[in-house]
């Protein structure tokens, strides 16, 4: 099954209400990422055509891409956590027996969730500070704080994802990198 098909047919490995939340967040992330990338590509191509064909750029194109980059980045953090695609330094982790890896993965998941919630809290404070200053984007005339709303949202969703990973590891016999990704390495070598 291709990666696109597995995302479309995503089913959470978590029981009950947690599984419903996990599946909903997965679908929301997929829509945000897909729309963000498509809109950014359309905006960029349209701006290039406008600049070279008509001699004028679209004045809000750079601002729109800035908004979309922030949106894609913070939606992508949750996506990476959901699929176990985050950066891992696993030398110590890999040297441990399965029981030790499980305990360490639970600790890592809970610690990372706490860091994400901490960053979410401070990003909200930052947004409130930006709101109090009343600055706006020059071309779109949107308050600048609005474009940063994606940061706490993405950090909060990522924190939830890491909490769900900890729950999955507590309730399962196997060790999971995310709610659906088992610990282990895929064999990437093919025989000739």
Automatic annotation (TrEMBL):
Signal peptide bounds: none
Predominant location category: membrane
Membrane-related topology note: Multi-pass membrane protein
Role this protein plays: Part of the tripartite ATP-independent periplasmic (TRAP) transport system.
Similarity comment: family membership: Belongs to the TRAP transporter small permease family.
Entry-linked PANTHER family: 2,3-DIKETO-L-GULONATE TRAP TRANSPORTER SMALL PERMEASE PROTEIN YIAM (PTHR35011)
Protein name: TRAP transporter small permease protein
Native source organism of the sequence: Vreelandella vilamensis
Source species taxonomy: Bacteria, Pseudomonadati, Pseudomonadota, Gammaproteobacteria, Oceanospirillales
């Amino acid at each position: 099954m291709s990666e696109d098909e597995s995302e479309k047919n995503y089913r959470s490995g978590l029981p009950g209400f947690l599984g419903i939340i996990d599946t909903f967040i997965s679908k929301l992330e997929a829509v945000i990422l897909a729309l963000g990338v498509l809109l950014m590509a359309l905006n960029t191509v349209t701006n290039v055509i406008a600049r070279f064909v008509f001699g004028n750029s679209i004045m809000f194109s750079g601002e729109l891409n800035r908004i979309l980059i922030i949106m894609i980045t913070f939606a992508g953090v949750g996506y990476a956590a959901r699929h176990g695609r985050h950066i891992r330094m696993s030398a110590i982790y890999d040297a441990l027996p399965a029981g030790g890896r499980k305990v360490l993965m639970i600790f890592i998941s809970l610690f990372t969730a706490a860091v994400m919630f901490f960053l979410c809290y401070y990003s909200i404070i930052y947004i409130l500070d930006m709101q109090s200053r009343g600055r706006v984007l020059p071309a779109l005339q949107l308050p600048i704080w609005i474009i940063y709303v994606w940061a706490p949202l993405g950090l909060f969703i990522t924190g939830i994802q890491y909490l769900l990973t900890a729950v999955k590891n507590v309730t399962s016999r196997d060790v999971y990198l995310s709610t659906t990704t088992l610990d282990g390495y895929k064999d990437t070598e093919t025989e000739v």
